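haha ok so turns out i had the wrong file open the whole time. this is the CORRECT one, sorry everyone. sequence first:
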Amino acid sequence: MKPFKYIIFVLIFPFVLSCSSSIDDYENTKPTFNLAEYFNGEVTAWGIVQDYSNKLTRRFCVDIIGTWEGNQGQLHETFYYNDGEQQIRIWNLEVDSNGSVTGGAADVVGEANGGSKGTAFNWQYTLRVPIDGTEYDLFVDDWMFMMDDNRMMNRSYMKKFGVTVAEISIFFDKTQPVRKCG
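then structure:
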Protein backbone atom coordinates (compact mmCIF):
# COMPACT_ATOMS: atom_id res chain seq x y z
CA MET A 1 0.00 0.00 0.00
CA LYS A 2 2.91 2.38 0.65
CA PRO A 3 4.03 2.50 -3.01
CA PHE A 4 0.48 3.46 -3.99
CA LYS A 5 0.46 6.37 -1.49
CA TYR A 6 3.86 7.51 -2.79
CA ILE A 7 2.64 7.49 -6.41
CA ILE A 8 -0.47 9.50 -5.49
CA PHE A 9 1.70 12.03 -3.60
CA VAL A 10 4.09 12.41 -6.54
CA LEU A 11 1.19 12.94 -8.95
CA ILE A 12 -0.73 15.40 -6.77
CA PHE A 13 2.12 17.46 -5.23
CA PRO A 14 3.03 19.46 -8.38
CA PHE A 15 -0.66 20.24 -8.97
CA VAL A 16 -1.06 21.54 -5.41
CA LEU A 17 2.01 23.74 -5.80
CA SER A 18 0.74 25.18 -9.07
CA CYS A 19 -2.52 26.21 -7.37
CA SER A 20 -0.90 28.41 -4.77
CA SER A 21 -0.34 32.09 -5.35
CA SER A 22 2.14 34.47 -3.81
CA ILE A 23 1.89 38.23 -3.49
CA ASP A 24 5.31 38.35 -5.20
CA ASP A 25 3.65 37.07 -8.42
CA TYR A 26 2.15 40.56 -8.86
CA GLU A 27 5.22 42.71 -8.17
CA ASN A 28 5.46 44.37 -11.60
CA THR A 29 1.74 44.70 -12.37
CA LYS A 30 -0.24 47.92 -12.78
CA PRO A 31 -2.22 49.80 -11.56
CA THR A 32 -0.47 49.75 -8.20
CA PHE A 33 -2.61 49.00 -5.16
CA ASN A 34 -2.38 51.49 -2.28
CA LEU A 35 -4.72 50.69 0.62
CA ALA A 36 -4.79 54.19 2.12
CA GLU A 37 -5.35 55.86 -1.25
CA TYR A 38 -8.09 53.53 -2.43
CA PHE A 39 -9.98 53.36 0.86
CA ASN A 40 -9.91 57.10 1.54
CA GLY A 41 -13.45 58.49 1.50
CA GLU A 42 -16.53 56.68 0.24
CA VAL A 43 -16.55 53.35 -1.60
CA THR A 44 -19.47 51.04 -2.37
CA ALA A 45 -19.14 47.33 -3.01
CA TRP A 46 -21.42 44.49 -4.12
CA GLY A 47 -20.75 40.86 -3.34
CA ILE A 48 -21.85 37.27 -3.20
CA VAL A 49 -21.13 34.40 -0.82
CA GLN A 50 -20.89 30.86 -2.16
CA ASP A 51 -20.73 27.76 0.04
CA TYR A 52 -18.36 24.79 -0.29
CA SER A 53 -20.40 23.44 -3.25
CA ASN A 54 -20.32 26.85 -5.05
CA LYS A 55 -24.02 27.39 -4.29
CA LEU A 56 -24.90 31.08 -3.94
CA THR A 57 -26.00 31.56 -0.33
CA ARG A 58 -26.05 35.35 0.11
CA ARG A 59 -25.83 38.63 -1.77
CA PHE A 60 -24.91 41.94 -0.24
CA CYS A 61 -24.01 45.56 -0.75
CA VAL A 62 -21.60 47.42 1.54
CA ASP A 63 -21.08 51.14 2.04
CA ILE A 64 -17.54 51.93 3.20
CA ILE A 65 -16.11 55.14 4.59
CA GLY A 66 -12.34 55.24 4.97
CA THR A 67 -10.50 57.84 7.03
CA TRP A 68 -6.74 58.17 7.51
CA GLU A 69 -4.42 60.08 9.77
CA GLY A 70 -0.85 59.37 8.75
CA ASN A 71 -0.36 55.62 8.62
CA GLN A 72 -3.41 54.90 10.82
CA GLY A 73 -6.73 54.26 9.14
CA GLN A 74 -10.27 53.25 9.88
CA LEU A 75 -12.74 51.60 7.52
CA HIS A 76 -16.37 51.83 8.58
CA GLU A 77 -18.30 49.15 6.66
CA THR A 78 -22.10 48.84 6.67
CA PHE A 79 -23.30 45.60 5.08
CA TYR A 80 -26.82 45.22 3.67
CA TYR A 81 -27.67 41.56 2.98
CA ASN A 82 -30.42 40.39 0.61
CA ASP A 83 -32.22 38.68 3.52
CA GLY A 84 -32.61 42.03 5.33
CA GLU A 85 -29.75 41.60 7.81
CA GLN A 86 -27.48 44.59 8.36
CA GLN A 87 -24.02 44.36 9.86
CA ILE A 88 -21.37 46.92 10.76
CA ARG A 89 -17.65 46.17 10.82
CA ILE A 90 -15.11 48.81 11.77
CA TRP A 91 -11.53 48.04 10.80
CA ASN A 92 -8.65 49.82 12.55
CA LEU A 93 -5.59 49.59 10.32
CA GLU A 94 -1.93 50.52 10.34
CA VAL A 95 0.40 50.60 7.34
CA ASP A 96 4.12 50.46 8.14
CA SER A 97 6.97 51.99 6.12
CA ASN A 98 7.40 48.73 4.14
CA GLY A 99 3.73 48.71 3.10
CA SER A 100 2.76 45.87 5.43
CA VAL A 101 -0.71 46.21 6.90
CA THR A 102 -1.95 45.09 10.31
CA GLY A 103 -5.38 45.59 11.73
CA GLY A 104 -8.40 44.32 13.50
CA ALA A 105 -12.13 44.60 14.00
CA ALA A 106 -14.55 43.43 16.69
CA ASP A 107 -15.28 40.13 14.88
CA VAL A 108 -11.64 39.46 13.93
CA VAL A 109 -9.83 37.05 16.24
CA GLY A 110 -6.29 38.28 16.83
CA GLU A 111 -4.66 40.46 14.21
CA ALA A 112 -5.05 40.65 10.44
CA ASN A 113 -1.76 40.84 8.50
CA GLY A 114 -0.94 41.48 4.89
CA GLY A 115 0.66 43.56 2.22
CA SER A 116 0.60 44.52 -1.42
CA LYS A 117 2.74 44.18 -4.51
CA GLY A 118 1.79 45.74 -7.79
CA THR A 119 -1.92 45.49 -8.43
CA ALA A 120 -2.61 42.96 -5.65
CA PHE A 121 -3.25 43.11 -1.93
CA ASN A 122 -3.39 39.96 0.19
CA TRP A 123 -4.13 39.65 3.82
CA GLN A 124 -5.11 36.93 6.17
CA TYR A 125 -7.06 36.81 9.40
CA THR A 126 -9.50 34.76 11.46
CA LEU A 127 -13.09 35.97 11.36
CA ARG A 128 -15.70 34.97 13.94
CA VAL A 129 -18.85 34.22 11.94
CA PRO A 130 -22.28 33.61 13.53
CA ILE A 131 -24.25 30.87 11.76
CA ASP A 132 -27.60 29.64 13.09
CA GLY A 133 -26.86 30.69 16.68
CA THR A 134 -23.33 29.29 16.76
CA GLU A 135 -20.08 31.21 16.21
CA TYR A 136 -17.36 29.72 14.03
CA ASP A 137 -13.79 30.97 13.70
CA LEU A 138 -12.91 30.84 10.01
CA PHE A 139 -9.51 31.56 8.48
CA VAL A 140 -9.81 34.12 5.67
CA ASP A 141 -7.36 34.40 2.78
CA ASP A 142 -8.37 37.73 1.24
CA TRP A 143 -7.14 38.90 -2.20
CA MET A 144 -7.87 42.32 -3.74
CA PHE A 145 -6.93 43.29 -7.30
CA MET A 146 -7.02 46.84 -8.70
CA MET A 147 -8.82 47.07 -12.02
CA ASP A 148 -8.28 50.82 -12.49
CA ASP A 149 -8.18 53.86 -10.19
CA ASN A 150 -11.85 53.47 -9.20
CA ARG A 151 -12.66 49.75 -9.38
CA MET A 152 -11.31 46.72 -7.60
CA MET A 153 -12.14 43.00 -7.43
CA ASN A 154 -11.90 40.94 -4.25
CA ARG A 155 -11.81 37.16 -3.76
CA SER A 156 -11.89 35.75 -0.24
CA TYR A 157 -11.53 32.12 0.72
CA MET A 158 -12.95 31.12 4.12
CA LYS A 159 -11.48 27.95 5.57
CA LYS A 160 -12.01 25.68 8.54
CA PHE A 161 -9.36 23.04 9.29
CA GLY A 162 -7.73 23.92 5.95
CA VAL A 163 -10.88 23.15 3.93
CA THR A 164 -12.55 25.95 1.97
CA VAL A 165 -16.10 26.28 3.31
CA ALA A 166 -17.06 29.50 1.51
CA GLU A 167 -15.85 31.88 -1.19
CA ILE A 168 -16.73 35.56 -1.36
CA SER A 169 -16.53 37.69 -4.51
CA ILE A 170 -16.78 41.48 -4.17
CA PHE A 171 -16.70 44.31 -6.71
CA PHE A 172 -15.67 47.72 -5.29
CA ASP A 173 -16.39 51.01 -7.03
CA LYS A 174 -15.60 54.57 -5.96
CA THR A 175 -16.48 56.27 -9.26
CA GLN A 176 -17.93 59.71 -8.48
CA PRO A 177 -20.66 60.21 -7.58
CA VAL A 178 -20.46 57.08 -5.40
CA ARG A 179 -23.60 54.95 -5.67
CA LYS A 180 -24.86 54.03 -2.20
CA CYS A 181 -26.45 50.71 -1.28
CA GLY A 182 -29.84 52.15 -0.28
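The chain is about 10% helix and 60% strand.
again sry for the mixup
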